[in-house]
């Protein structure tokens, strides 16, 4: 019998269709403001199944910090060859339009995305809302005595405890990526939705 499944009730209320968004950036927010997006990944979930994943590589205006490079493996030289954010926005916006957007750590990724939209004078499409899978998992993670920061349990922690295939490890090196992390989040969300059926 799955333990504390009632604390995951909110996941059972998610629609069958939604998208998952993730970003890799030049670093963390600091006194100079928010970092730049280097890659933006979107995974499309239809009827609770992954239907498509896509990654947009965007040329940052800021220098990529060494710590960020060690996380996602993208160098400043590589990023300099990427297309600009605004030149790809219409494609990104098409995925976001009229969708519920699931993000693991939405308080990080969502403000950065909105900042880019405003910065480039672009228009955000109408969406259904944003759901933070990390915050939503906090009560259950705490009850299960899992490692849990103020933001909630990490994607790695949930992957391990729920027995979900680790796509980062499969790819090799454990390197983060916006597309692969959005896929991993989609898998985690669907397992948590059905957690009561796990023996």
From the spread of the alpha carbons, the general shape counts as: globular
Tally the helices.
Answer: 10
Radius of gyration, rounded? 17 Å
Low-confidence runs: none
The CATH architecture can be named as: 2-Layer Sandwich
CATH class: Alpha Beta
Mean pLDDT: 94
Order of helices and strands: HEEEHHHEHEHHHHH
The profile of the biggest β sheet is: 5 strands, mixed
**Tally of individual domains:** 1
CATH superfamily: Ribonuclease H-like superfamily/Ribonuclease H
Give helix % range.
Answer: 25-40%
List keywords for this structure.
Nucleotidyltransferase, domain 5, 18% strand, alpha/beta, 40% helix, 199 residues, globular, 10 helices
Which helices and strands, and how do they pair?
Blueprint: H1 9-12, E1 18-25, E2 37-46, E3 49-57, H2 66-72, H3 76-79, H4 85-96, E4 100-103, H5 106-119, E5 129-132, H6 133-136, H7 138-143, H8 155-161, H9 167-171, H10 178-193
Give an overview in words.
- The chain is of the alpha/beta class and 199 residues long.
- The protein has a single domain, classed as 2-Layer Sandwich (Nucleotidyltransferase, domain 5), CATH 3.30.420.
- The protein contains 10 helices and 5 strands.
- A 5-stranded mixed sheet has the order 3-2-1-4-5, with helices on both faces.
- Strand 2 and strand 3 form a beta hairpin.
- The longest helix is centred in the C-terminal third of the chain and has 16 residues.
- The model has no long low-confidence stretch (mean pLDDT 94).
